[in-house]
Amino acid sequence: MILDLLKKRKSVRNFTGEEVPEKVTNYILDAGRLSPSGGNQQPWKFGLITDKELINEISDIAYKQSWIKTAGFLIVLCTYNVDKSCGGRGIQKARYPGIAEIIDNMDDEIYTKLHLEEHQTKIPGTHMVMAALEHGLGSTWVSYFDVDKLTHFLNLPKPYIASEIIAFGYPVNNEKITDKKSFDEVVFYNKF
Q1: What is the predicted pLDDT for the residue at 170?
Q2: How many domains does the chain contain in total?
């Protein structure tokens, strides 16, 4: 079933604007809530944006990507950096020992923002996209936006930041499913 859904998934940038039932949005949010996270920290909040005026303003914060305005709703994936006692920089230093000293001495704000972009909300967001597809909804990830401006706009308390936006809605159906590389092009066994 998952592979069937994945074969149908496409980035949708033209939605009908039709209202999505609350039971469907709750189902999608629950798919995110049930996602795994490092150390089971669950360092996230999911902002469900259904108000058209707010969607329009977020579209402007996303560097005036007007297609976002056609979405039935947005989910803003928000996160914070996990507590230092749960690994934090130690995990990154172990992953990149060649730059451990740089990681250790990096300004907290810069480290946090760069570190958050890499993960924390990718898994729940992916689960939400699949849950939406199960209900006939299309979606597109939006990473091109002013993070600080959106964080302030949504009144997120510190230490949360808006890390990703996903636009959802019923597709107008003019987007094509893009070709994917073949199995042999993306898989290797044991060593490259």
Answers
A1: 94
A2: 2
